């Protein structure tokens, strides 16, 4: 067999057998009498089912899978340095031995062909037998083997899983000079048809014996590789084929070792892609890709504005010149809700080459049309290639997608394309692009030193508060109008109008977590410090009793914890009672004293054994706390609960307002009260307090007298950090108005922002000359509320409410001496065996009177108010 003539005959894969006919058993019959033979006519077409053929392209690569230790470099007959297996034997069989990567396409995805070495039979030389898988084409060359049996199968390149190939074809040519092909009975069952020329009926014969079918030439004559009588095109079902290459070495000098380094006695096996029959238009494949999904039949977009790519893949089989196409085009009609991205259309072939110039782009509007040029179809280089038509699309801005919703409310965008060859049209599979509807929503934050909070305080050091309003624009309605709106409280004004911004981003971008404000963090740090200090005390010698709780859930939790040392906890609270024991009624000191006594009484009651009244007390405390801030609700862990109450009691005096002391006698009237030691003591206390002062809050905010420079500096500081949204500044894509304390931004082109998040940033400050008493207050503390609006097509959606506090200035005032407490009768002692006392130890106070819900609400009012109004440092 003439190796060079085969190589020059546009061979692109393996399988032409060169073998002596004497190796084929006798009793051969003419090929024309074989039942699967067909001589094609002008109307004949090879079914599109048999579309696959392995082709070596510029994207292809050879990889060895086993027997690598037997690979050695040698020189091919063409002078090329290649790797060959030397001395393969039975021990190397039954394994995948080589893989050609990127040799074709199936359903739009790249495929590889894997060669499995089933068996080898040596001819009988003294050594040096060799087999080479060619590196520049899909082909097998060998020397010294009587038989080489292989199975080839197709797998997807990316997963290496079997590709569901429906069928493939191969054209074996140059069958002459005692050459033959051998196929097993199992493989012959997969052969659907064999196309031959009329002249091949008597040139090639068929022999069936021992489970094999052989196709060969009984003539010794050499013919031209392109001679039709020496060709045979076979159509195979499925994705794998098993066949044998045999060689009759009769007449060769067997008493020698082959010179494998120079490819001695080389025998090449290959096949061609052309066939003597037209091929039906092969079915094209359509896939879709987006920014995080690649080559899918279904994909899901993150936002309505996200661009995505359609890819229509089509295989153009190798054809003989008489079957070249007269016309070839790809069409894709997009639904009205889509539009093609300008200048995005591109065509590539299986060599990875941009071949857009071979086609005419006749796209108009939503009708994507690509037509092959006449001179393109006349060139053989067009055939035997895979083509990919790629273009980007996106949802038209502001389009109404409601009619594309399915029963679950999900938006689905369908698409199919077609490829037409000589009037024969074939459609792709259907792709589906999903989009989850985005509903309008609005969320408001305050940016505080780069972090998002929902409460903040205006101080002299931080005179500016930056509002951030995240407005999510819907993507499933036709947007006719879009406005962002925020009306400020009359006590506030915009700090710097030039700093008002509207930032556009994806709906799911720029998510922030609301941070606790600085005062809460500071309090938690201090509490943690105290907890650490308290835990260092050695209380192992103290008498402890298990804690009991007001509900079963708390009891179960208590069983898991360490026992509580009530004596130690009482000692921690007692200093507060002692500190304010002389507090006058109706003063802020007396409020603290009442709270401290309440905690002490509860602890004493719990030490003695919980009573029903004790339960009521704890429930009342918990209710009062929960109404103010659920974070302060008692947990059921008595030690932690006492720590919580203890820490806030010590700070309550700083914010609890004092009522006027009405107990002082009128100086204009003579006193009928005799002088006694108590009055002397009071006088002494007053004497001792001379010169001492305390701070008293005024009605003036600390931020009332800040300079423009300080305002500007704080604006820049607040509007930086993680809580400042990232994205496109679209402020100028709308009309911004600030009038009478109302900030509005109206989009010029609302549809542009469908499915987007628009973050409106507004820096505000306190108006000059404001009095604290004139500001909105809650529980005795300044709380300036603010709520924003998102207006879509005239419909308002309100945000959550955020609050701004105001720090007050303080001044030094003389400190008044405390009034001594009237002596109290000694408490009666509980008699052993008597019921539990109605009056609690230490205070002698009736439990129901002390801890009633009304009393607790009053007592804790100042405490909770303090928590909401602590000053910003």
TrEMBL record:
Comp. bias regions, Basic and acidic residues: 509-544, 553-566, 661-675, 683-739, 806-837
Alphabetized UniProt keyword annotations: Membrane, Signal, Transmembrane, Transmembrane helix
One Pfam family linked to the record: AgI_II_C2
Record bears the keyword Ligase: no
Signal peptide residue numbers: 1-28
Annotated segments matching region Disordered: 509-566, 652-739, 805-845
UniProt cross-references to InterPro entries, sorted A to Z: Adh_isopep-form_adh_dom
Transmembrane segments: 847-868
Domain Adhesin isopeptide-forming adherence per the UniProt entry, residue ranges: 284-435
Keyword Transmembrane helix: yes
Entry-linked NCBIfam families: LPXTG_anchor
Name this protein carries in UniProt: Cell wall surface anchor family protein
Species of provenance: Catellicoccus marimammalium M35/04/3
